[in-house]
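help with this.
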Amino acid sequence: MKKEYDFRQGKRGAVLKAPPRKIRITIRIDEDILQAFRAQVHAAGGGSYQTLINRALREHVESSQESLKETLRSVVREELAKYGKNEGTSLTKRSSGPAKSAGC
């Protein structure tokens, strides 16, 4: 290592600029989770554990949205089956006003 370095041409800030649509944040992650992602990168022979974390988060968000849709559809189907097919009744549109009597 040199005793002195010449920083007259140096520039402040990050050496590499972040890619577009990427935001720098600080979060706290459990140590075992972080080690698991780092181990996956090591086993693969290199790469970025941050990319793996981002991919895992993206998959979770996308599957959660689809899962919610499917869950709602399943619940609606079950409820329709209870009131429609299983009990022999048909679903009818309810009126919002008071019932009209035949004599009026």
In short: The longest helix spans residues 49-86.
